[in-house]
Structure formats: structure tokens, C-alpha cells
TrEMBL record, chain B:
Gene Ontology molecular-function annotations: molybdopterin cofactor binding; oxidoreductase activity
Domain named Molybdopterin dinucleotide-binding: residues: 16-114
Protein name per the record: Formylmethanofuran dehydrogenase
Pfam families on file: Molydop_binding (PF01568)
Gene3D superfamilies associated with the record: 2.40.40.20
SUPFAM superfamilies: ADC-like
Length: 422, 136
């Protein structure tokens, strides 16, 4: 094993904050400590085990697994490629090339989480800002359906609430107001004290409408139990913000508040104030996948490449190309899953459909889904055993420099090898 | 009496479930999803203490949670919070919650992670659903 000569600091690929201040301490050839990282980051960085590739549950060498995967994909009429949110941008681009080569459907986890918000940001339909802007200027923070203490543990200490910034020199208790709007009390809402607004599930859109009324001086009305005075107080804080930021969490996305409602609310709010929105994408490079596919096709996810009669590629897009619809309707005849675990993250009524199709997994870790897979190809853990670029939660590109070299191929090179075989 | 009681079916109670993320559970997942640590932090459901009393359930006991698409046996916990949440239960996002989360009927393509209708009942002597059983 080779240990790279590193800069003083490494980047943590544990979540989309991509914290770039991690001090690694080695014990021999093993990572011993990941100082500054949160508990989740430490586990991601330190718990790197060497596992074997498999065909039908039997251990094989990696080349055999790659060859078998290529054979399955080559013979497929309607392959699906899913995942890639824990891969570097370079690997994502190779996967898009593979999807074109074999006329596949390609989708990622944003398909059932933050996709619509990232799409609106890439189209400049939602005003956004960087985390550095948040640290330097933000005076009002709104965690809407978001619980960063659990999803992005260092957001508040590194960028949002606690640090001093250029125009925020007096500390969090004087200089910043944090607000939580959520269906449940969370570790983050507790920080917001009286500025926690608990609302019933799926009432987010209704609260946005009520706040919009309050902005324009009308009496806000909602069908659920909340004092009108509290809505008026919230509307006042939002209107008076010098530099506001809404952290849009999964709670907001899953509340089924349409993206149009969110866009209209932000536009209305910004006739009085100066608000920005950052989507709380989870996986470290989900924004990278959205950006890469958007640059190639004009869509952030749910894309199918189809060869037309003249041999050129048509790009199809829509709900029917989402991983959930594809699997639920038993459309794909081979599935390639890269760096994600459907049995952990998606409804099992859908994930169980994978048992009926040849399934290939590329992953550095032991996943639940690999137990039903035909082929498992072990890859290097990206950001730790291999490097590349990734797009942070706020759209900033961050370079990942590998910490150790385990000799394992990264997913980028595995995908290239599959394409060579095909 | 005890012997007779075990043949009586336990009452089912309706509940709406909201799933959530937990950093300690995410950290355990990074180490191993097949560990007891991950199971203990994932295979749980949290209810309001008034609901627990009303439903005659016991904190720390196992309960069967059933939706239109599946059922799991998990451990019952309570949240010590000043804010009541009667009628709503919380489960961490995990293979156990995903065993019972249905797809939504609308066109968003987003499953019902934040509003899942289910029933809950005492699990008698049943043990927590093993992760291997969830994949089977
Ligand atoms: S907050 Fe995210 S990126 Fe930062 S150390 Fe924790 S897991 Fe890693």
C-alpha cells in the first residue's frame, strides 16, 4: 500500500459539504484519525475494508467480474444505470458515455429527492449562493424541512450559524437568526428555540401562501393550528433579512410542495428581501451528477438514450425513466448500480424487483442489494482510495485527493474497462 | 389466564409515520449495515408518550408496524419532548422503514417518506425483523 504525500488537509466525502479541513493521522499504512471530521465523516474515512468481487455470490477476481458485467450489459436490450451520487465527476462522465454506448436509461437518487430544486437552480430559476457567502453575509437562516445536525453535521459550525464572517463579526447570538420549519422537532430545530415552527405534514405550500399574504399586509390564513401572530412574526423576520438563506431539506421535497410553489414563494419574498436557496443534497456528489447529465442532455436525471434509425442518439426524459418507475414497471432487462444501495434507500416493494433482473453492483462497501446481485465489482472508495472532482452542496467544485492507494480500481476505471470489453 | 391471553389478537392502532435521518445511524451504516449497532439504531419506531399509554403499548417492547406494502417488527421508543406529536410516529430512514414505505399516487415520483399510513400493535414475543429477512 502506498501512502500519498498529502497537503496538510484532506477532503471528507461523507456528505455534500465536502469539508476540506480534515487532518489525517496515519498508523503505519492505516488511517488512524480524521481530525475535524464529524462522526459520520470519521466512519466514512476510516472504515475502509478490503472486500472481494463476486459472481453469483462466489468470490472472483475483479477482471472476471468486469468481464461478466460487460457481457450482461452488451446483451441487454433495455439496460438501466442507477446511482453515481457517491462517485467522482470523472466517473459520472464515463457512466454517461456507457449509457450512450449501450442505449441505457440513466438515473440517480435525486430522482426521488432534490432533483427538481437542483434543476431549477441550474436553470437560474432559483436564486442561490455559496457556503462562503452564507458564512460571510447571512443574517437569517431558514432550515425548511432540513435537519443539518443529522444530515450535514458541520454545516452550522463551519458555514451557517456559528462562524464569524466578513459582515457577521459579532457572533451567532447577536448576528444571526436561525429558523426551523418542520413536521417534527429535530436536533436542528432545538437550536432555533422560539423560531421553530412545527407544521403538519404536507402543509409547507399552505404556509408559503400564508406568508406571501402576510408579506403584502394581508391577514395570513392556514387550516392548521398556529397562532396568526407567529406567522406575522416569521414574515417580519424574513422581510427584514439583509441576506437570507433557505436550506431546503428533504422534508420540503417530500412534502410534495411543487417546485412552482417554491419558486413563486422565493420570488414574492425577494420583492421585499434578499433570499437565497441551497438544496440539502445528501450524497457527496449528487449535484455533480445532476450538473454532468444536465450539461450533456439538458436534464438533471431520468434520461434514456435511444439510437434512432439514422444511428444518432435521441434523448428521452420523463417520469417513466425514473428508477422507481422503471423498476416498478419491470422495464429494464439488466441493471447496473454504482455506489448506492436501493434496499437501504428506496421502498422495498420496488427494490425487490431487482431480484427478477440481472443486477450488477459497483461498490467499495458491503451493501444489502449485493445479496441479490449477480455480479459485484469492488471499487476503491472515492475521495479516500482514489481522487477526482466533486460538486459541493452549493455548486462549488472541490478536488478530492486520495489519502491511501489500496491498489483497488476506482469506479471511473472500472466503467472504462467495461466499455473496452463491450 | 396467560396462556389464554396469548391466543387473543392484540389490537391494532392507526398511526402516521414520518421518516427522518439520524447521524449516529448514518455513522453506523458506514461501518456495517449488518451490525447490531446499525440494527439497534434503525429498527425502531418513536411514539408520543400519550399515544403509547392510550394504545396500551410498552416502551422497549417490540411492535409490529404494518402498511399496505409490508410489515416489520421493530422496537418501541418514546421521545422525551415538550412538543406533543400525537397520531404521528417517527422512524429513521432505513431498510426497516423502507420495507413499509409505499410509492405515492401522485406524479412527483417521490415515495411517502413523510406521510406513511400504518397500523401498530404489540408484537407479543416476536423478535425484531432481521436485515436478512428484509432482503429475502
Ligand atoms: S459534515 Fe459531511 S463532509 Fe463534513 S466531516 Fe461530516 S460527513 Fe464529512
Amino acid at each position: 500500500m502506498v501512502i500519498f504525500l498529502r497537503n496538510k488537509y484532506s477532503v471528507c466525502p461523507g456528505c455534500s459539504l465536502l469539508c476540506d479541513d480534515i487532518e489525517i493521522e496515519m498508523k503505519g499504512t492505516e488511517i488512524d484519525k480524521a481530525n475535524n471530521a464529524c462522526i459520520k465523516g470519521v466512519s466514512r474515512i476510516k472504515d475502509t475494508k478490503k472486500l472481494e468481487s463476486k459472481i453469483d455470490g462466489n468470490e472472483v477476481n475483479q477482471d472476471e467480474a468486469i468481464f461478466k458485467a460487460a457481457e450482461l450489459l452488451q446483451n441487454a436490450n433495455n439496460p438501466l444505470i442507477f446511482g453515481l451520487d457517491n462517485s467522482t465527476t470523472e466517473a459520472q462522465l464515463e457512466a454517461i458515455k456507457l449509457a450512450k454506448l449501450i442505449s441505457a436509461t440513466i438515473d440517480d437518487n435525486s430522482s426521488f429527492c432534490q432533483g427538481p430544486i437542483v434543476n431549477a437552480i441550474l436553470k437560474n430559476e432559483l436564486k442561490t449562493c455559496t457556503l462562503d457567502d452564507v458564512r460571510d453575509y447571512a443574517d437569517v437562516l431558514v432550515f425548511w424541512g432540513a435537519d443539518p445536525s443529522n444530515s450535514h453535521p458541520r454545516l452550522n459550525s463551519k458555514y451557517a450559524y456559528y462562524p464569524r464572517g466578513k459582515e457577521r463579526q459579532r457572533g451567532w447570538d447577536e448576528d444571526r437568526t436561525a429558523i426551523a420549519i418542520d413536521v417534527r422537532e429535530s436536533s436542528s430545530s432545538v437550536l432555533c428555540k422560539d423560531n421553530f415552527y412545527q407544521i403538519p405534514p404536507r402543509s409547507d405550500g399552505e404556509l408559503m401562501t400564508a406568508l406571501s399574504s402576510a408579506f403584502s399586509g394581508k391577514m395570513p390564513k392556514v387550516s392548521f393550528d398556529i397562532e396568526t401572530q407567529r406567522i406575522l412574526k416569521l414574515s417580519n423576520i424574513l422581510k427584514k433579512a439583509k441576506y437570507g438563506v433557505i436550506f431546503a431539506g428533504l422534508g420540503l421535497t417530500y412534502s410534495q410542495t411543487g417546485i412552482e410553489t417554491i419558486k413563486n414563494f422565493l420570488t414574492e419574498l425577494n420583492t421585499y428581501s434578499n433570499f437565497h436557496l441551497i438544496p440539502m443534497v445528501g450524497h457527496y456528489n449528487m449535484r455533480g451528477f445532476n450538473q454532468a447529465l444536465y450539461n450533456e442532455t439538458g436534464y438533471v436525471n431520468r434520461v434514456k438514450f435511444v439510437k434512432n434509425e439514422s444511428g444518432n442518439l435521441d434523448i428521452k426524459h420523463g417520469l417513466q425513466y425514473s428508477v422507481l418507475e422503471q423498476l416498478n414497471n419491470k422495464e429494464p432487462d439488466t441493471v447496473l448500480i454504482i455506489g448506492t444501495d436501493p434496499f437501504t434507500s428506496m421502498p422495498h416493494s420496488v427494490a425487490k424487483k431487482l431480484k427478477e433482473v440481472p443486477t450488477i453492483i459497483i461498490d467499495p462497501c458491503e451493501t444489502l442489494t449485493e445479496k441479490i446481485a449477480d455480479v459485484v465489482i469492488r471499487s476503491a472508495k472515492s475521495g479516500i482510495e482514489c481522487g477526482g472532482n466533486a460538486i459541493r452542496i452549493d455548486g462549488t467544485c472541490v478536488e478530492l485527493v486520495p489519502i491511501i492507494n489500496s491498489g483497488c480500481l476506482c469506479d471511473e476505471h472500472i466503467i472504462c474497462k467495461i466499455m473496452e470489453e463491450i | 389466564m396467560d396462556d389464554f391471553g396469548k391466543y387473543l389478537s392484540k389490537p391494532e392502532h392507526e398511526i402516521r409515520i414520518i421518516t427522518y435521518r439520524d447521524v449516529f445511524q448514518s455513522s453506523a451504516a458506514e461501518k456495517s449495515k449488518f451490525s447490531d449497532e446499525y440494527k439497534n439504531l434503525s429498527a425502531i419506531i418513536q411514539l408520543d408518550k400519550k399515544d403509547i399509554k392510550k394504545m396500551g403499548l410498552k416502551i422497549g417492547h417490540n411492535v409490529i408496524v404494518k402498511s399496505t406494502v409490508g410489515e416489520v417488527t421493530v422496537q418501541l421508543k418514546v421521545i422525551e419532548s415538550d412538543i406533543p406529536h400525537q397520531g404521528f410516529a417517527y422512524m429513521p430512514n432505513s431498510p426497516w422503514s423502507n420495507a413499509i414505505v409505499p410509492l405515492s399516487d401522485d406524479r412527483s415520483g417521490v415515495p411517502e417518506y413523510k406521510m406513511l399510513h400504518a397500523t401498530i400493535k404489540d408484537a407479543k414475543n416476536e423478535s425484531i425483523t432481521l436485515i436478512e429477512e428484509l432482503i429475502a
